[in-house]
Amino acid sequence: MRPPRLTRLTLPRPWGSAALRTLGPGSVSSLLKVGLDVAYVLLWAILAILILAFVAAVFIPLDNLTVTVDDAAGGRELPLERAILLFAVGSFCAYFGAFALIVGRLRAIFRTLTQGDPFHPENISRLRQIGLILAVVTGGVWLWQIWAARLAPGAMEPQGVGELLTPIFSVLVVFVLAEVFREGARLRREAELTI
């Protein structure tokens, strides 16, 4: 006697009878795009405030202002110099500006996902741009921490090579995803030509 054939496997869905869609209007990707839209506006608002602070730092008097730096031996006061203040505020401007650019590229990618077109050819360059911006931010933060550690010894330790593994891994993952999207776009073009 032969066992009965299993023709269709039906698993219970945790969210009821409706399937959770990941692409298209009303999907998870459209919900994430709304979150990215909010983050994009907030990042640009923060960046505008930082730019105003940068401009104000050029003109505010810094006579007799000091910064207290805490380290293991105790606190010490350093004079607040205009160049240090401008560099610090400018660094924050660059940091938030870079992430505003990343979120802008992600919004464009999620717009294509919401339209149901994940392998849009522009997504390849958007992912590469995100990877490049992440690489520049990672290098910039690393250099900034080295500079800050020299400015205030003991208060901040520079990142070691081991601490750079996660950001470098993230950058490499983004570049690999760009190649996956490139291959997906190529396969889609071939499929369109055969139909």
TrEMBL record:
Transmembrane portions of the chain: 38-62, 82-106, 127-144, 164-181
Keywords: Membrane, Transmembrane, Transmembrane helix
Name of one Pfam family that matches: DUF2975
Domain of life per record: Bacteria
Protein name per the record: DUF2975 domain-containing protein
Species this protein is from: Brevundimonas balnearis
